[in-house]
Every structure is written in structure tokens, then in C-alpha cells.
Amino acid sequence: DAGVTQSPTHLIKTRGQQVTLRCSPISGHKSVSWYQQVLGQGPQFIFQYYEKEERGRGNFPDRFSARQFPNYSSELNVNALLLGDSALYLCASSGTPDGGELFFGEGSRLTVL
Amino acid sequence: SQQGEEDPQALSIQEGENATMNCSYKTSINNLQWYRQNSGRGLVHLILIRSNEREKHSGRLRVTLDTSKKSSSLLITASRAADTASYFCATDADGNNRLAFGKGNQVVVIP
Predict the structure, then answer these.
(1) From the CA of B101, how many Å to the nearest CA of chain A?
(2) Three-state SS annotation for chain A
């Protein structure tokens, strides 16, 4: 069975641009979460979606947005990119939205120049 | 915001030795989880311990949880070179799968 897949794996953008990252959860998983991991730090929670509804949002500016599609895949959008947005963006899926383990993808590494 | 704080931050051991990492947190939790990450890749779930549990085992892993001290430890026994990775503790405060991660523990196992 395929795990969580993310695309693209690497990308380079310049300040002010916009980026869209994509995630396909494990088949049957209806909950998707997004995390940002800056080099040398632990991941930070950005968004959680379940059944296409936003269930939680971390402490990130409105430049960050996301959505979940009917097939439970998800997109993370970041507008007006800043140098500080350079990070590994991780998507995770889970079978339930409550109290269980997360299955992470390999991440999308974003570099903002 | 970061919740867990691992200690020590970096650990270098010989193959076959045991590795112990500690994690402290500030608020009450529903569960605490440990994850492994190899070279900036995706995280792999290792073990989950709920707030009403004190100890849990999985293969060569042993996790303890002391909610009165708001701390947890991860023990890897008989370490192998393949255990070289960063290890993160993550707390789930409300059981809603929104995890707060620590900064991570870098473990190097020397063959």
C-alpha cells in the first residue's frame, strides 16, 4: 500500500511568490495535517483537516491556507513568500482525527531566495 | 508552539550500547508520542503512550511517562548503526492529533 505522498519534493521560489504543495493521504485516511519544519527544529503544526473541514489551525499568518478535496487529498498554499518560509513542509495522515499516530510523507523542501 | 523539550540534544554511542533520551513538557496531555527522522526526511512513528499509562515497550524501545513530573524517556536498547537518526517527542494535549514537537535529539550510533 502506498504511504503518504507529497509533491513536489523540492522547489525554489523567490520572495513574494506563491507556492502550492500537494499531499495524498494513505488510502482510507480521512484526516490530513500539515507541519512546517525549519532546519534544526521540530515540526510545527499548521493545519488539520478532517472530512474536508478545517479542524485546527496553528499559529501561522493568513498567508498560509489549505484545503482538502473530496478524495481526501490536500493542498497547502503559501502566498507572499518570505525568506523565513524556507523549510521542510510535512503532510501527515491518520485514520481518525483523534488520539492516534500520524503517518508522515517525505516532505516538500521549499527554499525561498 | 514547541511543547516537548528533549534532553540531551545530541548523543553519540557505540553499537550495542543503550541510548536514553528525555523529554519534558509544560501542559497536561492526552498522549505523548515519539518519532524518528532520518536526515531531514519524513517522520516515522515509534510509540504512543497515553496519559494513564506509565510504561510501554515496542521491540527494542521502552518509553516511560511521568505525568506528575511532566516528563518522558525513550530507551533504545542494543543500539544499531541503523538507529542513527533524530528522535522527537510530541505531545497531544487534547487527543485531537495536533502534535506539539520538541526540538529533537540527534543520535549517532558508531559501528
Answers:
(1) 5
(2) CCCCEEECCEEEECCCCCEEEEEECCCCCCEEEEEEECCCCCCEEEEEEECCEEEEECCCCCCEEEEECCCCCEEEEECCCCHHHCEEEEEEEECCCCCCCCEECCCEEEEEC
Sign of CA dihedral B80, B63, B20, A42: positive
pLDDT in tens, A23-54: 999 999 999 999 999 998 999 999 999 999 99
Torsion of CA B102, B33, B45, B86, to 10 degrees: 30
CA distance A14 to chain B (A): 22
Chain A residues lying within 8 Å of B101, measured CB to CB: 35, 42-44
Task: Determine the 3-state secondary structure of B83 from DSSP.
Answer: helix
- Identify the pLDDT of residue B3: 55
- The three-state secondary structure class of B84 is coil
Confidence of residue B2 (pLDDT cuts 50, 70, 90): very low
Nearest to B98 among A41, A45, A101 (CB): A45
Q: Are B11 and B108 in contact (CB under 8 A)?
A: yes
